[in-house]
Amino acid sequence: MSYTLTLNTFEDASKAERHAAEQRFRHALEASLGSASLVLPTYKAYLQIVGTYGEAPDLDTLPSAACEVLEQWQAAENAAMTAAFGPHRYMGEARFEFGL
Length: 100
Known about the structure:
With 100 residues, this protein is an alpha+beta fold.
């Protein structure tokens, strides 16, 4: 399965800077999840969990498989954001948008 990834930011960034950030994000996300083929199914499962239980569910009430997926996605996304922008970036500055 393939996916698209687009950086949306309010800051001025060149096309090359955006592309480089997108690539760093993509590589870190794929490495954290284990392979590129796991990104889309994990992301879809994450969206389903968040849609059912909310953005910050009580982990004790989640089924163990849902808890594992939620934690995997959040850890991978955090690693990817750090790879794309560094450890000291502010969370409101930019977002990555996934295309299915």
